[in-house]
Write a structure and sequence with these properties.
47% of the residues lie in helices and 11% in strands. The protein is α/β, with parallel strands linked by helices and 983 residues long. A 6-stranded mixed β-sheet has the order 3-2-1-4-5-6. A 6-stranded mixed β-sheet has the order 7-10-9-8-11-12, with helices on both faces. A hairpin with an 8-residue loop joins strand 9 and strand 10. Keywords: DNA damage, DNA repair, DNA replication, DNA-binding, DNA-directed DNA polymerase, Exonuclease, Hydrolase, Nuclease, Nucleotidyltransferase, Transferase.
């Protein structure tokens, strides 16, 4: 091994227990052999090996080894006989899988290393030291805190279950001390799992504070009399010897006399036939197929290997580590540090203080009018390694906006050095005088030519070594993309804020500036006017434009300095890096592509909807006994509650009767025909005005396609929304809505592919709430609503009445959204008492769901936020409101957020990976739309059959490797000429 090599060391024992607890029980069909842990282990190892170069730790391993515990008895038991004495024996069905997993490692053609008398951690520490001394880099594949003492400049860790890199900063983030102090910290805290005594009453936060204050364990013990807290002081003095013993127990031995040298760990090319033979013996069909495709091996020609299975008595393996077994994959790693001198929390706090203290001077900005000056600014940006960038245009529609100018902001010095300031400038390109001829006057003086400016800017924006910082940068990326420039390497302050504070407030620049900088930026209306006096930005005087645009860039850069450190301090780096930042470029390309629509279909539908609305209007007038303006809430309210005297009327602040959709739905559910007709009329007229009449107006004059705009930071849970046009709200369960989808078509010779997750939120619920009945039903491919009805009502699944299934379906989906007995009664048209009985019975049959709801509400009240299984946070600051209605609303939202948010995270992960997967498969399919749980693609008709399996595979495996779902994800995909037929 030499400098430049990279060694991956997999904590095999940790992998075993994570694999075992990540999947439901699984047996080999031919003989009933338990293979759940083997299956999970193989899938995790395959994922790590096949995708490490691209989607995991971003490096290519040259050497690779999987390290196992030989047994639970090691040299540490000589030091302390009670070491790990409280470990429970492994589960009975796991024991025979230990030897099979070792065979699996060999089938992957990887070194399988264990050594009697030593733990896997000691072997990992030894190989890490040897590789480090040889000049190589090391990645330890584990999340075990015991291994964090190894982290340093040449050694890092990678938690594959959470898709999270662990370096020095992450250790500090989690524990409040650097890696070299982890031994001292663990010596103080002890470890109940391993039965390491530590010092009673000292937890991680206290230990970190003490180590930070005294420097190390020896100094702390020597100066314990100085500790001001009496109980803490007495405990440390009385238990000093326990702390010293604990240090010996937790310190890893890095001088084990290993039998395999580093060169023997060289990562050989994968032996496809050898691995497939093992996988066929285990009857792992899906993984066999994937390996065969990746290694270009004909699986049918490979015979299954013969695998010897150890008896439970002969098998050896570690005792069960509860730390490996428990908790969801995102249960930890997202906690803020305790604070202190140089940890991420204090850095973030210091940055925020400096940002408020530094005043913004809009008179100091520069107007760049020539190529030489712009080149000097670009050179300075390269030297700084980062800069803020913002465009000024003629329209909010990035696909039709003309570029008027752009601004830059560069840092000078650093906040930590106390010399920090920002230089900002504006480059005008297409301002006009606004006077003269009828076309709006000629070009203003003192501007750069567009081509000359873009020539200088292109090299900077496409330089991956320079970080570009923007606010809602997707818009600017799309604008620059239309000029043939791709922005590579960026941060987005809007997305940073969204990850950190979803649910706490807005993420627009003005709001963020007021919150974090104490500064109110120049308002757009102050430079461009408003109302009848509004002018385009190209007509704004260049001096005013410079102050406005350059300030935007400076504010953005200041916000970046405040928000970026909080990612580490709050433990949210992976959410931003894996879910938000990469998706921005994906969505930009989707918006750029657009989708075709058929004007004739929309015109015909407009006519049909108009006729349907007119017929309903006539029926409404007959039922009301008089003609009136159906679209007038005031006239409708007077008829319903004034003349007809229907119950449930209430007046708004303006004194009018409320005729909201909920009011009308409640009246319709009570059996009143007129409100039902009003609801139907409103639906038809809304579809006509919002879609069939409006969609043709969104067709781009050049591309002849519709380009919707996706908003990434518009919801608390992570769901995307869209606008101009809003394609998210086209109804799919009504005949009229489906007809509108027929107008979304593929170009001649192409087809659309719709790929839709099946019941993803119920699957996520089964995973996070750990509901065995639901998990098993999904695993077996059973109709989940029929299964629920059978569980609740004792009705056989076979030949189940549709009404019984419909009621179970309403409950299944209603529970996710915290439905009340009142709401369920309205939905099913039954008495509230009967609905309440349904809900009570549901919780009796699935008690884990009630437990999940109670635990989630409690967590939300304690923390002010809830988390998805991927670590995304949704904040509900009003969940402690004294107002019962506000509090109840927030509780329902908090219960739903981890479910809906995880579903949103999963499809985001799929979208981020999709383009690379299609390209690798040689498929020219283009992702066009995302609508909740559905993705829409366009491809050549001849390529559809090849594209669909790739799309389905990416979507179904999107949660991995961060989360191993307890239930399988399923995707329905088909192709057709229009969107409705493909769905």
């Amino acid at each position: 091994m030499k400098q430049g090599d990279h060694l991956f060391l997999v904590d095999g024992s940790g992998y075993i227990f994570r694999a075992y607890h990540a999947l439901p029980p699984l047996t080999r069909k031919s003989d009933g052999l338990p293979v759940g842990a083997v299956a999970g282990f193989c899938n995790m190892l395959w994922k790590l090996i096949s995708e490490a170069r691209d989607t995991s730790v971003g490096v290519t391993p040259t050497h690779f080894a999987v390290i196992f515990d030989y047994s639970s008895k090691t040299f540490r038991n000589t030091l302390y006989p009670d070491y790990k004495a409280n470990r429970s024996a492994p589960p009975e069905d796991l024991v025979p899988q230990f030897s099979v997993i070792r065979e699996a490692t060999r089938a992957f053609d990887l070194p399988c290393i264990e050594m009697e008398g030593f733990e896997a951690d000691d072997l990992i520490a030894t190989y890490a030291r040897m590789a480090r001394e040889a000049g190589a880099d090391v990645t330890v594949i584990s999340s075990d805190k015991d291994l964090m003492q190894l982290v340093g400049p040449k050694v890092s860790m990678y938690d594959g279950m959470k898709d999270r890199h662990i370096g020095v900063a992450e250790v500090i983030e989690k524990w409040g001390v650097p890696p070299e102090k982890m031994i001292d910290l663990q010596a103080l805290t002890g470890d109940s799992v391993d039965n390491v005594p530590g010092i009673p009453g000292i937890g991680p936060k206290t230990a970190a504070q003490l180590i930070t204050e005294f420097g190390d364990l020896d100094t702390l013990l020597a100066r314990a009399e100085e500790i001001p807290q009496p109980k803490r002081r007495e405990s440390i003095i009385a238990n000093a010897d326990k702390a010293r013993l604990s240090r010996q127990l937790v310190r890893l031995s890095d001088d084990v006399a290993v039998t395999e040298d580093l060169d023997s760990l060289f990562l050989n090319p994968l032996d496809g036939p050898k691995l497939i033979a093992f996988l066929k013996a285990m009857e792992f069909t899906s993984l066999t197929r994937r390996v065969a495709e990746a290694t270009h091996t004909e699986a049918a020609e490979i015979a299954a290997a013969t695998i010897a299975i150890d008896s439970p008595e002969a098998a050896h393996g570690p005792d069960l580590d509860p730390g490996e077994a428990g908790g969801s994959p995102a249960a930890d790693g997202n906690r803020p540090p305790d604070g202190g001198g140089g940890n991420p929390g204090s850095v973030a706090q210091r940055r925020a203080e400096l940002a408020v203290a530094a005043k913004i001077d809009t008179t100091a900005y520069v107007t760049i009018r020539d190529a030489e000056t712009l080149r000097a600014w670009c050179d300075a940006a390269r030297e700084a390694g980062l800069f803020a960038f913002d465009t000024e245009t003629t329209s909010l529609d990035a696909m039709q906006a003309d570029l008027v100018g752009f601004s830059l902001a560069l840092p000078v010095g650093t906040p930590e050095a106390g010399t920090f300031s920002i230089r900002a400038a504006y480059v005008p390109l297409a301002h006009i005088t606004g006077i003269g001829d009828l076309l709006g006057g000629g070009p203003a003086e003192g501007q750069m030519k567009l081509d000359a400016a873009l020539a200088e800017l292109r090299m900077l924006l496409e330089d991956p070594s320079v970080l570009k910082v923007g606010q809602n940068l997707k818009y600017d990326m799309l604008v620059m993309g239309r000029h043939g420039i791709r922005i590579i390497g960026f941060d987005d302050t809007m997305l940073l804020s969204y990850v950190l504070d979803a649910g706490r407030g807005g993420h627009g620049m003005d709001a963020l500036s007021a919150t974090w900088l104490g500064h109110q930026p120049i308002a757009y209306k102050d430079v461009a006017g408003s109302g009848k006096g509004l002018i385009g930005f190209d007509q704004v005087e260049i001096d005013k434009a410079t102050a406005y645009a350059a300030e935007d860039a400076e504010v953005t850069l200041r916000l970046w300095h405040v928000l970026k450190p909080r990612l580490v301090a709050d433990g949210l780096t992976s959410v931003y890096e894996r879910l938000e930042r990469p998706l921005a470029a994906v969505l930009m390309r989707m918006e750029e592509r657009g989708i075709s629509i058929d004007r004739q279909i929309l015109s015909r539908l407009s006519g049909e909807l108009a006729q349907g609305a007119a017929a309903l209007e006539a029926e409404i007038h007959d039922l009301a006994g008089e003609s009136f303006n159906v679209g007038s809430p005031k006239q409708l309210g007077d008829i319903l509650f004034g003349r007809m005297g229907l119950p449930g009327g209430s007046k708004t602040k303006s004194g009018q009767w409320s005729t909201s959709a909920q009011v009308l739905e409640d009246l319709a559910a009570a059996g009143h025909p007129l409100p039902r007709k009003i609801v139907d009329w409103r639906q038809l007229t809304k579809l006509k005005s919002t879609y069939t009449d409006a969609l043709p107006g969104f067709i781009h004059p050049q591309t002849k396609r519709v380009h919707t705009s996706f908003a990434m930071a518009a919801t608390t849970t992570g769901r995307l929304s869209s606008s101009d046009p809003n394609i998210q709200n086209i109804p799919v369960r009504t005949a009229e809505g489906r007809k509108i989808r027929t107008a979304f078509i593929a170009e001649p010779g192409n087809v659309l592919i719709s790929a839709d997750y099946s019941q993803i939120e119920l699957r996520v619920l089964a995973h996070v709430a750990d509901i065995p009945q639901l998990s098993q039903a999904f695993a077996d491919g059973i109709d989940i609503h029929a299964m629920t009805a059978s569980e609740m009502f004792g009705v056989p699944v076979l030949d189940m009445p549709s009404e019984v299934r419909r009621r179970a379906k309403a409950i299944n989906f209603g529970i996710i959204y915290g439905i009340s007995a009142f709401g369920l009664a309205n939905q099913l048209g039954i008495e509230r008492s009967e609905a309440g009985e349904y809900i009570r019975r549901y919780f009796e049959r699935f008690p884990g769901i009630r437990d999940y709801m109670d635990e989630t509400k409690a967590q939300a009240r304690e923390n002010g936020y809830v988390e998805t299984i991927f670590g995304r946070r949704a904040h509900y600051p009003e969940i402690r409101s004294p107002n019962p209605q506000v509090r109840a609303f927030n509780e329902r939202a908090a219960i739903n957020a981890p479910i809906q948010g995880a579903a949103a995270d999963i499809i985001r992960r799929a979208m981020v990976r999709m383009e690379d997967a299609l390209e690798a498969a040689g498929v020219n399919a283009r992702m066009l739309l995302q609508v909740h749980d559905e993705l829409v693609f366009e491809t050549a008709e001849a390529e559809a059959a090849k594209a669909i399996p790739v799309i389905v595979s990416v979507m179904e495996h999107a949660a991995m490797p961060a989360v191993a779902m307890r239930v399988p994800l399923r995707v329905d995909a088909r192709s057709a000429r229009n969107w409705d037929e493909a769905h």
